[in-house]
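Example record

The entry below shows one chain as it appears in the dataset: sequence first, then structure tokens.
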Amino acid sequence: SWDSRQSIDSKMWNANKKSIKANHLPNLLDVAFQTLVVRRAFPNFRVTSWLMMPDKAKVWKAPSSDKRIKTDPPPTVADTQSLIKESVAVLLNVDELVEKALATNVTYPGSENGNTFQRVVEKWAQDMNGEDLSNDKFKHFPIGANCGSCEYRLI
């Protein structure tokens, strides 16, 4: 969740903007991954990154019956922005945080030290899209206790 009474710097960055606070890192790595994919798919486009979160500083008010969302014709960008302003959500531009996340060294079970998030994603993409799908190629994905909480487990 978010509290719009605080700045993005104080809420998401550690001292001197050297690193991203751990409690926001999973969401920002997710947005960074999506940003990287869109940049690769559309290299000539300028990609901006946004995160929508519930705002603790806002109070939800039940809409009156005349404020129903109209879907025909589809809502415009201005309509959508207006709905967000009236909701308990806040839309945060996280471009600077995404750039930091892409350049951050990551560790995970079986990882090699010193690889940035961007490099790890690119390596995994090469591994998954290559012709050689031998087991040796995927040895850097060890199975262990860390797999017990994985959302992709088979059991």
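Notes for this example: The first strand starts at residue 50 and ends at 54. Residues 25-41 form the longest helix (17 residues).
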